[in-house]
Amino acid sequence: MQQTSLSARDQQVIWHPYTQMQTAPPPIAIIRGEGALLFDEAGNSYIDATASWWVNIHGHAHPHIAAKLAQQAYELQHVIFSGFTHPAAVELAERLLPILPGQQQRVFFSDNGSTAVEVALKMALQYWDNKGQRRNKFLAFKNAYHGDTFGAMSVSGRSVFTRVFDELLFEVAFIDLPTADNIQEIIQQIDTVGVNNIAAFIFEPLIQGAGGMLMYEAGPLDKLLHHCKEKNILLIADEVMTGFGRTGKNFAMENCSATPDMICLSKGLTGGSMALGVTTCTSEIYEAFLSNDKLKTLFHGHSFTANPLACAVALASLDLFTAPECMINRQRINLAHQQFMQQLKEYPRIKNARLQGTIIAFDIITDNADGYTNNIAAMLHTYFRECRVMLRPLGNTLYILPPYCITDLQLETVYQSVITLITSHLK
Ligand SMILES: *Cc1c(COP(=O)(O)O)cnc(C)c1O
């Protein structure tokens, strides 16, 4: 009897994220990974040029991560995190806090980027409540993406992702990305919202990821952040995507002199191998919750808060992240991206080539509107699939965001697949 393929079995039982199940091609069944390569059930290899949804930093099935995971699994797999603690969580907090920008003093664990954002939003609102002040508005950027849960969706730009739910999302004051030209205007806009109502400003520093890899300058951002500080608006840096070296520096906020009150991390936190989120905060935030009054407690938690396996894997990832080789690889990728960017400038079908650290992005000019629903996306999916390069466009925006261990040759193959696309498939 002929064996049914994994991808055929998948199609009988699974509902995939962001996927129109009626029209999507069958998923590629990946059964193994190694470095920047992923292998499907037929034995084909794919170069992972998107770090498996922006999470993977050290490569797939990394032996150090696997060993630490196995070791932890033999010691302790899970324990309730209220009233109990464990070595991996404590060590992770001890090692993480000192490398974060802006005097972060406490770590609150959750499960993913969206929950890290939810925790930050709740901390901000309750911070003001605990201090006896009523501030219940948030400030965020247009086109922001902070996650898919309701609070995270609310502070995200309104889009096809949120359309059905818009009526139920709480109201947020959205501002444009700051530039040297519009910064004064934005500051005025904030002051019109009524600064005394704004609990916090949440933002993705330097790059708006899901919004289309939109990059902006640290200088104007810093001005904006300092203005918020002056008005006592708390700053929530959502470094879920930018954290752990993506933008060049270890954390994107290192490019600013203003310091965040809270930082959200996930994706690269475990090297991209397990689900874990953290929200960190300064002592100023933390201390506002200390009281004899039980009502000032932060009433938030998840069954798997600070899961020991995930924390052990995050520690293993930190070992690799803090080794000199990691920075060398990031710089190597950045240099290669710089050269590729020069090359891209020769092609009139490409616009807005942009680069930040290990991320390069550019837009393909088409005859329909830019954005996530652009019709070219389906063609690009098929094309890169056939090239055995894992590149997934955001509408007509293409980006390369590889694991840091990607080799020069693999990177060259990825670039070449893009050049061939432009020269032979875009008429
Ligand atoms: C991916 C992402 C999130 C959401 O994280 P999930 O783990 O997918 O819930 C939040 N913020 C930013 C900036 C992201 O890129």
Strands of the largest sheet, in order across it? Answer: 4-12-11-10-7-5-6
Largest sheet: 7 strands, mixed
Beta-strand proportion = 15-25%
Query: How many beta strands in the DSSP annotation?
Result: 16
The hetero molecules present are:
pyridoxal-5'-phosphate
Computed CA radius of gyration, to the nearest angstrom: 22 Å
Would you identify the CATH H-level superfamily of the largest domain?
Type I PLP-dependent aspartate aminotransferase-like (Major domain)
Report on this structure.
The chain is of the alpha/beta class. It has two domains: 157 residues, Alpha-Beta Complex (Aspartate Aminotransferase, domain 1), CATH 3.90.1150.10; 257 residues, Type I PLP-dependent aspartate aminotransferase-like (Major domain) (Aspartate Aminotransferase, domain 2, 3-Layer(aba) Sandwich). It is built from 13 helices and 16 strands. The strands form four sheets. A seven-stranded mixed sheet has the order 4-12-11-10-7-5-6, sandwiched between helices. β13 and β14 form a beta hairpin. α4 runs parallel beside α10. It is globular, with a radius of gyration of 22 Å. The N and C termini lie far apart (45 Å).
